[in-house]
Amino acid sequence: MLSVRRLALTTSLLLCTAAGLLCTAAGVARADDAVPLQIAAAETVTVTATRNPTSAETFPGMVDVRDYDDIQADIPSTVSDIFYGMPNVQFTGGPRRTGQGPSIRGLGGQDVLTLVDGVRQSWTSGHDGQFFLDPSLLAGVDVVRGPNSALYGSGALGGVIAFRTIDASDLLGPGETSGVRIGLGYQDVDDEFLRMATGFTHIGNLDVVGSIGKRTSGDIKLGSGATLAADDDIVTGFAKVGYDFGDGLTVKLSYQGYKDDAVEPDDGQGVSTGAPVDKRVTNTQFAGTINWKPNGTNLVDLHLTPYHIEGKVAITDPATGDHTIQDIKTDGFSGDNRIPFEFANVSGIFTFGGEWYQDKQTGRDSAGVGGVRSGVPNGKDEFWGAFAQIEANIDHPLGAPGKLTLIPAVRYDSFDSSSTGNPDLSKTVTSPKLAATYAPTDWFFLFGNVGKAFRAPGINELYLSGIHFEVPHPFLPGVSVANTFQPNPNLKPETSRYWEAGAGLNFSDVLTVGDTLRGKASYWNQHVDDFIDLSVFTPPTFYSMGCFTPPDFLTGCNVGTTTSVNVNAELHGTEIEAAYDAPRWALQASYGTISGKERGTAYALNSLMPDIFSVIATLKVPEVDSSLNARLQNAGSFHKNYDPVSNDPPTDNRKGYTLLDLYATWTPGNGILAGKLRGLRVDVGVDNVTDEDYAPYAQGVSAAGRNFKVLGSYTYTW
Fold first, then answer.
1. CATH number of 408's domain
2. Helix and strand numbers, DSSP H then E, in the chain
3. Cα(677)–Cα(687) distance, rounded to whole angstroms?
4. pTM here?
5. Which residues are bridge partners to 138 per DSSP?
6. Degrees to nearest 5, angle at CA 53 with 50 and 58
7. Is residue 193 part of a domain?
8. Chain centroid to CA 400: how far?
9. What are the E-state strand segments in 39-109?
10. Distance (Å, rounded) from C-alpha 132 to C-alpha 316?
11. Is the distance from CB of 500 to CB of 532 less than 8 angstroms?
12. Which pLDDT tens digit goes with each residue over 336-385?
């Protein structure tokens, strides 16, 4: 494998050489002719993987794309519901929506970058989840598995999840200009009701969409037969206005509002059974999107995204009146430009851009000393970065058959973190990447990528302070002993060296005219230096000395510490995806496996998931505008040993499980009742048909049991 220094030099040289040719190439380039990869009509397109429309199937990495119909068919209650069947993608935290967070290839939390309409989501919290978005507002999602810091900087160590919200054009058909949609949904596992109303119009150069929705739900019935205390009352508001000013200039302004009044334990994750508190989770995002591609030149194809986000979790303990707040405000701006080029047998796109963003966090506790909240330090971090990337398609490279696609990229980042009373942290990082796909024929291709990625330590990792948890004193009623947070301002950024190699197949007209068969598989390897882990240390003699022996046994005291530490880690795994699509039926299958450990030890990382095999079978019944779906997922048994000094418990043993879900969709068209039901859509389904009792990856509690659900919507357009 190339050394990181050599890779950075090679990547930079390729970028500079190609950039130097652009001035000549731009004179003869035509944007319509120069695309990063030739995309067949039936292929799925990702924008996130390279920041440009690219074939997800032949991209030199592993990408999953879900569109509006895919999302609707899942009848999602939470964002996590729409990721079914993506290998090595799981969600942590348990069934409560306030605790859920993504994990890709064994890396979660701040190691997975989330984007909403191109806007970086910076919310970080130990137990309060990461998503403040209703899935009914989503038009699509791209999931890039594997590091992508060369384009996106800090946080893209495990991968990137990019959501796209709806435009009016997503809901309108040919010749239609306006419409309204109402939706109602229900699922019985937590008695959840959804009510949603959306209005939209696209008249001339104006595109407007607005929506308001409400979800209410209660306690969650688990497969174990137990009930998990939960109570959510969620209101969402959404508005987006776009206008085409002509000469290639379009501007969009958007607002997203989310408010969840929940009653649940302070820690919303796992099996937490503490006394219920009143929890209000709010998130507000304002964003703009400016696209400018003026006529008559290929040198300008500019995308700009300014944004402002305010997120807050406010908790009130009804028993004591204690009031705590975590507040994060984010301001940011990103921009990029692309220039198509073409010369000889080479064509492609040169993309370059930059980004700046700043997070400010405030933590308050009405019962804390000086109003300080434990585990939520007041602090600020600031990032800026610049990147460049080339996507070059070479026909018959060196006279060989087929096509070679080369994608070199490099990004430079600088960040500063600070908190009152603590040392500042400032670092710069360079993240190079080189990816390639070679397709000697139309039906077979090889691909690979190699590079370096990073993730800066967060405010909550650097400057932790206060009490982590308390346990009752064994002898003194009403007295507690505490495990305390310890700051570590000397934390280093996580840096990753990685490589991936794989192959894919693509056939059409296999069993019948119009069918397609696609498959893709990869093996990946990732070494993470200075991986940031939360070390919870309690002395082995917890109950035999210190607080519980003279002279201190009659007083409360602190036992043990919790701090963020750097360890070295290594991970590797395999991913396989295959899909067959025909006019009458479709079949999708996926398989993922992950292994990982602290380097130089026998201890596994505590972020691993079991091997999981998934199948989705679809029967299409166009005669009645319907489809029937069955999903089967099998997870292997899981047995891991963790470092006993920093993990409690030091072992994790979970049995394997098999899940069956059944779904059906009905979208009556003009052929039923003379078209009087056109615009109606009904999705019904049953999750966990067999009511399996199982414990998913890193959730700390049995998953939800059998769940009947239905989602109905009616759209009237004119």
1. 2.40.170.20
2. 5, 38
3. 27
4. 0.91
5. 165
6. 75
7. yes
8. 39
9. 45-46, 54-55, 62-67, 89-92, 101-104, 107-108
10. 20
11. no
12. 999 999 999 999 999 999 999 999 999 999 988 788 888 889 999 999 99
